[in-house]
Write a structure and sequence with these properties.
The chain has 249 residues and is mainly alpha-helical. It contains ten helices and no strands. It starts with 5 loop residues before the first helix and ends in a 7-residue tail after the last helix.
């Protein structure tokens, strides 16, 4: 039987957006946000340049008819849609890889704000920099968990009749992954292993799906996904504190 509270889970992302406006948390929201905006801009520019070359090559293969050559704007619309979708789905993974050391500390500060309790960790910039390899390794661990399951769902999507449920399975899986992705930051601060985190979220699976659902939806919206990452970190920390996570470390 599924445990937890789906509707309570839905509220954590909204709480996260409120928390990122707190004065003590803003610095560790702004720094990765600036990095992500620069990354987003660079990716958009280079992908635009790449697709401009692809469009020119595609048009060169078409007959030299004026009306057909004039349809290059249609190619730009189609490629523009591809760019947006690629950025929307791939941005969160890249943003988490780059911002993971900051997000771990943001989760720590958020927990202190919510509980009023100090965590026995070194909060210096040197400690944050030293923590980069471990944080990146944790992100890679999540990616390795995600990829085989995502590939399996892609294969299911190719099977006639069965593929009718593939969209629902994708949606549920992405919601679950978003909960795992962001609750992992406070869990990692408490030295909880990734397998143990999966079991912990499984104990309150309805709450986990409730939290992951709006995060998954917001992550698909360009520009909004720039802001949803730090908000999700703060919301996930509220999840950790208010559900059963903090009492089981």
């Amino acid at each position: 039987m599924l445990k937890g509270n789906f509707f309570r889970g839905l509220g954590y992302l909204g709480e996260g957006f409120r928390l990122i406006r707190q004065p003590g948390l803003r610095l560790f929201v702004i720094i990765p946000l600036v990095i992500n905006i620069l990354l987003f801009g660079l990716l958009f520019f280079f992908m635009g340049e790449l697709f401009a070359g692809l469009i020119a090559a595609a048009m060169s293969w078409l007959p030299d008819w004026a009306w057909l050559q004039a349809l290059d704007w249609l190619f730009w619309i189609l490629y523009g849609a591809v760019i947006v979708l690629m950025l929307a789905y791939g941005f969160v993974i890249v943003a988490n890889l780059i911002g993971s050391p900051f997000y771990g500390y943001l989760a720590e500060l958020t927990e202190k704000h919510l509980t009023g309790q100090e965590m026995n960790t070194d909060d210096s910039w040197a400690s944050i920099i030293k923590d980069i390899p471990r944080a990146l390794a944790r992100e890679v661990q999540k990616i390795l968990y995600y990829l085989p399951r995502a590939i399996a769902l892609l294969i299911i999507g190719l099977i006639p009749v069965v593929n009718l449920v593939a969209a629902v399975l994708w949606f549920l899986f992405n919601s679950w992954m978003m909960a795992l992705q962001y609750v992992d930051y406070p869990a990692d601060n408490h030295k909880l292993s990734f397998p143990a985190l999966r079991r912990l979220l499984g104990d309150t699976r309805l709450s986990a799906f409730g939290f992951g659902l709006p995060v998954a939806l917001a992550a698909m919206v360009p520009v909004l996904n720039l802001f949803v990452v730090p908000a999700a970190v703060c919301g996930a920390t509220a999840y950790w504190v208010r559900e059963n996570g903090a009492t089981r470390t």
